[in-house]
């Protein structure tokens, strides 16, 4: 066989593999509706209930990624800074709650001692 014939065979085999492989995978891959129908009833119900919440969480995450990418810093650094800020806010609110609870306990103690 000539060299040109070998090249054409290799080119044909490459096209079949590069085009036919993904086309075959796409043809046997089930659609989202088919997968959903295979769920049992409990999973279908839970999927329908949590679908909107998960979509909203994903949208929030994408928006945060967009916000972080606008910064001059790395996305990871911006994400860490936002997480640190959120954690400090949680800590301050928790300490404020503890302080309010302590003040309330002191007032209750004063009331009890004052009544006796």
Automatic annotation (TrEMBL):
Q: Where is this region: Disordered?
A: 82-116
For this protein, the record's InterPro entries field holds: Cbp4
Q: Does the keyword Acyltransferase apply?
A: no
Q: What is its main location?
A: mitochondrion
Compartment(s) where it occurs, according to its Swiss-Prot or TrEMBL record: Mitochondrion inner membrane
May I have one GO cellular component term?
A: mitochondrial inner membrane
Q: How does it sit in the membrane?
A: Single-pass membrane protein
Any signal peptide, and if so, which residues?
1-27
Q: Does the keyword Mitochondrion apply?
A: yes
Task: List all Basic and acidic residues biased stretches.
Answer: 97-116
What is one Gene Ontology biological process annotated in the Swiss-Prot or TrEMBL record? Answer: mitochondrial respiratory chain complex III assembly
Q: Which Pfam families match?
A: CBP4 (PF07960)
Q: Per its UniProt entry, which superkingdom is the organism in?
A: Eukaryota
What family does this chain come from, according to its entry? Belongs to the CBP4 family.
This protein is called Cytochrome b mRNA-processing protein 4
Origin organism of this chain? Answer: Aspergillus wentii DTO 134E9
């Amino acid at each position: 066989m000539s060299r040109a014939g070998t090249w054409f065979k290799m080119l044909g085999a490459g096209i079949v593999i590069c085009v036919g492989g993904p086309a075959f995978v796409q043809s046997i891959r089930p659609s989202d509706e088919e997968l959903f129908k295979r769920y049992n009833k409990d999973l279908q119900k839970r999927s329908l209930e949590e679908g909107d919440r998960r979509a909203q969480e994903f949208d929030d995450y994408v928006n945060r990624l967009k916000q972080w990418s606008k910064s001059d810093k790395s996305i990871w650094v911006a994400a860490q800074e936002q997480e640190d800020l959120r954690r400090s806010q949680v800590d301050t609110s928790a300490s404020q709650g503890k302080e309010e609870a302590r003040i309330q306990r002191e007032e209750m103690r004063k009331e009890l001692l004052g009544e006796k």
